[in-house]
Amino acid sequence: MKLNKIIRTLVASTVLFAVSATVHAQTLKLGHITPPTHVWHQISEKIAADLAQASAGKMKIAVSPLQKLGSEAQMINLMQAGAQQFGVFTVGGLSNREESLLAWSLPYVFKDVAHATRAVSTPAAKQMLKRLDNSGLVGLGYVFAGMRHVLSLQPVASAVDLKNKKIRSFPSPVYNDWWNAIGAAPTAMPLSEIAPSLTTKLLDAVDVDLDALVGLKFHQQAPNLTLTNHMAFPAVIVVSKKWWDSRSQAERDMISKVVAGAEQWGFKAAIDADVMNLEKVKADGANIIKADIAFFRVVGGKVRDKYIAKNPLIAEFYKQAKDL
After folding, report:
1. Which of 162, 188, 214, 217 is nearest to 92 (CA)?
2. Where does the chain have alpha helices with state H?
3. Which of 8, 21, 115, 302 is 20–30 Å from 35 (CA)?
4. In this model, does residue 18 exceed pLDDT 70?
């Protein structure tokens, strides 16, 4: 009897150990929408590598670029259910859950990527992250791509050249308001469909950051790059709140430290990439156009005023960020 009891105890212990080991060895999921060449993918890979090292291999992350886990809306649903643990999601995609994040997309708030990264430290930017808790997400930090410009089939020297032209635009209320006010026809489209749509002339132009442009070589289809510098393009590093709440405080501290390090690394990478990518585009023979952007700025001011009046946290963010 004693021997049987000992055997049962040993078997039970072995099973528990095996289950525990399986849980700890589980591969976590991180998804985003950009190509593997993009700075957001590099930051995601850094989070994966640094977390594996910090956890001694207990937390391993599989990074999936280019919507391989689904659209941002689909991935957010997965995270709310705890089926996906990490994500790097655009502020535009997350603004459906937290409207104040639209503040990051207001036209002509930021002079350059460096200016945008400084806005992360504002109280308003931190409050936006805290509010994501209400959507089953935990906001841990920000990442940036390059500033937004216009890539086109035909040269765009002023806003008049975009009148009634189909421009691929990020699916966000601010972008729609902005391009409609310019007189263009904003068209939502996944990154993977842009190149063929330019080739077949279903699109006339693209609202794009230089990181995505270079990574997917859009300038091979549309050779004219107008440096409008009209918006920043941030994303948020998030984790599933359901998964986060099941972690120990020590694990949460470890993850927060890893993400904070990757966030700071990403700021410099994004600033450097914006400069290098412009040089790459020039070297590839793109036609660089310095347009008359006075009208763009006037329209931008009207769009900003609309959203500042609409949401107090957007107004506070603009006040805190514009002169940093």
Report:
1. 188
2. 2-25, 39-54, 72-80, 91-94, 113-118, 123-131, 173-182, 194-199, 210-216, 241-245, 249-283, 294-310, 312-321
3. 115
4. no
Sheet of 60-64: strand order equals 60-64, 27-31, 86-90, 234-240, 137-144
> Which amino acid makes up residue 171?
P
* Alpha helices, DSSP H, located in 55-122: 72-80, 91-94, 113-118
Q: Which long-range contacts (CB under 8 A, 24 or more apart) does 182-190 make?
A: 182/295, 182/296, 182/299, 183/159, 190/33, 190/67, 190/71
Sequence-separated (6 or more) residues with CB below 8 Å from residue 24: 58
C-beta of residue 284 within 8 angstroms of C-beta of residue 162: no
> May I ask the CATH architecture of the domain 148-231+284-321?
3-Layer(aba) Sandwich (3.40)
At 268, list the tokens. Answer: 């410099």
Overall size of the chain counted in residues: 324
What's the pTM?
A: 0.90
Q: Which helix (H) or strand (E) holds 150?
A: strand 148-152
Q: Assign 240 to helix, strand or coil.
A: strand
- The 10s digit of each residue's pLDDT in 275-313 is 999 999 999 999 999 899 999 999 999 999 999 999 999
Q: Class of the 2-145+234-279 domain?
A: alpha beta
**Phi/psi of residue 142, each to 5°?**
-120, 155
- Quick one: how far is CA 111 from the chain centroid? 19
pLDDT tens digits for range 54-93: 999 999 999 999 999 999 999 999 999 999 999 999 999 9
Q: How far apart are CA 276 and CA 290, in angstroms?
A: 18
Question: How far is 62 from 31, CA to CA, in rounded Å?
Answer: 8
